[in-house]
């Protein structure tokens, strides 16, 4: 395994969050591939029960077990785990109370589901606890089983509460195994080896949620990581042209002459068609110019968070397995993995 300097040397748990619709799960999957490159072993964990990892990798629904799902660029393995709160509860009862059989009986009665519904903080402790265990786990040789763990976490709006498990569980238990377990999980989440990355689009609402989420993490003494700006598109024209178009100064008549010059004006009817097409294209250029100006403004806003930023391209053919590898290479090229 070759050495490689990255922005996140020493980080072992990468938590990925983002507003719904920003491509959070896709970015988490691409980050896992990037981190696993060159012979590393990475675990990709999801906790929301959506089977998003299976969908992104075009796989059948994942069971509650760690399973190899992909080979990274240059070698290396990506494993996946879809955490099920009910199964995590049974493991918890077995680990701390030796009550797995009783736990199965409680499951049949619906008590486990009832408990995690009335006490959502307990549910978060269970699913983050499974992730924390994977981060800490060592093999028989004493080495870490995984070089890194990527957690596809809940959306930005509740990420601080989700990770701040000690305060969330305080009302459930002040002593005993639950409290001790929560403290252990909190130790991993607040560790210098953990970073929370944000996925956003260059749009006002996702950008604002990103900034709000970063502020909440800092207030909770958790460590923000990088900002992944997803689905970016390069400008189609020079800045001077875009600035003119945004102000309504783009010359449709000149564009019509250009269209005629390439053969759209062989007759009077073709000339009218060229002028009509020029007007439509001028409107499109103006829309593109306004969009580009908005994106420049949102980039400046994100720069105010003073965190590393990485731009991932909009995939013309949509997100498939080849697209995931393309995003992984973009992540590596920018030094994020």
Account of the 3D structure:
By secondary structure, the chain is of the alpha/beta class. It has 2 domains: 13-233 and 314-333, Rossmann fold, CATH 3.40.50; 239-291, no CATH class. 52% of the residues lie in helices and 15% in strands. It is built from 14 helices and 8 strands. α3 packs across α6, α6 (120-136) packs across α9 and α11 (239-246) packs across α13. The longest helix has 36 residues, at 268-303. The protein is elongated. The two termini are 14 Å apart. The mean pLDDT is 84.
Brief account:
This protein is an alpha/beta fold and about 325 residues long. It has 14 helices and eight strands. It has two domains: about 15-235 and about 315-335, 3-Layer(aba) Sandwich (Rossmann fold); about 240-290, no CATH class.
Assembly of the depicted chains: single chain
Q: Give the total of domains.
A: 2
Mean pLDDT: 84
The CATH class name of the largest domain reads Alpha Beta
What is the CA-CA span between the terminal residues?
Answer: 14 Å
Global shape:
elongated
The poorly predicted ranges are none
Count of DSSP E strands? Answer: 8
Q: Which fold name corresponds to the CATH topology of the largest domain?
A: Rossmann fold
Radius of gyration: 25 Å
CATH structural architecture of the largest domain: 3-Layer(aba) Sandwich
Structural topology:
Layout: E1 13-18, H1 24-36, E2 41-46, H2 52-56, E3 67-71, E4 77-82, H3 85-97, H4 100-109, H5 111-118, H6 120-136, E5 148-152, H7 159-163, H8 165-169, H9 176-189, E6 194-200, H10 204-219, E7 224-232, H11 239-246, H12 252-264, H13 268-303, E8 309-313, H14 321-333
């Amino acid at each position: 395994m070759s050495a490689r300097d990255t922005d996140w040397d020493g980080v072992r748990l990468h938590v990925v969050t983002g507003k719904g619709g920003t491509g959070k799960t896709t970015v988490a999957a691409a980050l896992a591939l990037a981190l696993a490159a060159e012979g590393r072993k990475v675990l990709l964990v999801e906790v929301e029960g959506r089977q998003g990892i299976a969908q992104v990798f075009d796989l059948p629904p994942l069971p509650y077990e760690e399973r190899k799902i992909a080979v990274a660029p240059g070698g290396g393995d990506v494993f996946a785990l879809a955490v099920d709160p009910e199964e995590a509860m049974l493991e918890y009862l077995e680990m701390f109370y030796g009550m797995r059989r009783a736990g199965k009986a409680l499951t049949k009665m619906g008590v486990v589901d009832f408990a995690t519904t009335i006490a959502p903080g307990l549910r978060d402790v269970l699913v983050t606890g499974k992730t924390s265990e994977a981060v800490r786990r060592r093999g028989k040789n004493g080495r870490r089983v995984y070089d890194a763990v990527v957690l596809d976490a809940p959306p930005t709006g509740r990420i601080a509460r989700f990770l701040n498990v000690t305060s969330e569980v305080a009302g459930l238990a002040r002593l005993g195994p639950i409290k001790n377990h929560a403290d252990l999980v909190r130790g991993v989440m607040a560790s210098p080896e953990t970073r929370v990355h944000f996925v956003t689009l260059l749009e006002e609402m996702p950008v604002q949620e990103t900034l709000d989420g970063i502020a909440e993490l800092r207030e909770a003494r958790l460590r923000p990581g990088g900002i992944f700006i997803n689905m970016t598109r390069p400008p189609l024209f020079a800045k001077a042209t875009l600035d003119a178009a945004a102000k309504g100064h783009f010359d449709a008549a000149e564009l019509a002459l250009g269209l005629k010059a390439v053969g759209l004006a062989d007759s009077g009817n073709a000339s009218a068609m060229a002028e009509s097409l020029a007007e439509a294209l001028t409107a499109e250029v103006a829309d593109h110019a306004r969009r580009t100006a908005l994106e420049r403004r949102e980039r400046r806003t994100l720069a105010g968070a003073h965190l590393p930023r990485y731009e991932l391209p909009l995939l013309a053919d949509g997100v498939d397995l080849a697209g995931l590898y393309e995003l992984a290479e973009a992540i590596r090229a920018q030094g994020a993995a």
